[in-house]
Amino acid sequence: MSCVHKYKQYETAWCPGCGNFPILDALQETLESLAIPQHQVVIVGGIGQAAKTPQYINANSFESLHGRALPPATAIKMANQNLKVIVNTGDGDSYGEGGNHFIHNIRRNIDITHFVHDNQIYGLTKGQSSPTSDLGHVTDFTPKGVINQPLNPLVTAISLGAGFVARCFTGEKEHLVEIMKHAIEYKGYALVDILQPCVSFNKINTFGWYKKRVYRLDKETAKYDPTNKMSALEKAYEWGDKIPLGILYYEEKKSYLDHFEFLKDHALIETSHQKEMIKTFMKEFQ
């Protein structure tokens, strides 16, 4: 079944001007252009404004607990590696509550795509500082400014061995669609940190603030090599007056399921089971 024009279906409940809108549009356009049948796509979210994304796309979806989007996404992919599993959630959900899962999912290198809507604030719970909020960021909950060192998700991912690490901005939609395509097609864990404005609670990192600072590596950096890990780390540390966009690091490597011989020819859900043995095992939990 063709999936063209089939992903757009549901009305959204985000604030007017929210950066989640262009991310949703870009994801829908990406899935349609890749011509992936809807039944082969699973969108997973946690809790938060960004994590509502699965509710607004006409495909399989799973809504998890706060910070717990990656575990069910991992389980879904392990059960059926023929599915395209895409996690859409925010910086608080992914890097705060879900920080431990973020770290160990990189280590496993499970073949899922992780789009993080990074607005540097907690939008759903009314504007607390998030793990990516800059030092000194004043909110109603940090009236004297953020004093915790901000998490750098790109440095974290590259240093832990992620094979696909990228950053995008909602003001560069064509570029965002291009990177989304590459991330979904990458065989392994792919992280795309997407800078987006929160018009209600983040009055510092606005659309204009990002627009003045972002630049594309493929346009402004001569002969940038995303396979050079040290160069990638250097760019990942770059933040403030200039913020690089694009694929910062790329490395082909074995994904988690490639290590299991019995999954090479068929998905786990297609494997025959010894029902009587399973029933005996389950009795122990009754």
What string, H for helix and E for strand, traces the elements in order? Answer: HEEHEHHEHEHEHEHHEH
Radius of gyration, rounded?
Answer: 19 Å
Separation of termini?
43 Å
Tell how many strands the DSSP assignment holds. 8
Reported for the largest beta sheet, the result is: 8 strands, mixed
As residue ranges, the low-confidence spans are 1-5
Number of domains: 1
Mean pLDDT: 91
Structural features:
alpha/beta, disordered N terminus, 286 residues, globular, single chain, Rossmann fold
Give an account of the 3D structure.
The chain has one domain: Thiamin diphosphate (ThDP)-binding fold, Pyr/PP domains (Rossmann fold, 3-Layer(aba) Sandwich), CATH 3.40.50. The protein contains ten helices and eight strands. The protein has an eight-stranded mixed beta sheet, sandwiched between helices. It has 286 residues and is α/β, with parallel strands linked by helices. Helix content is 32%, strand content 16%. Helix 1 packs across helix 6, helix 3 crosses helix 4 and helix 5 packs antiparallel against helix 9. The longest helix has 15 residues. The protein starts with 19 loop residues before the first helix and ends with a helix.
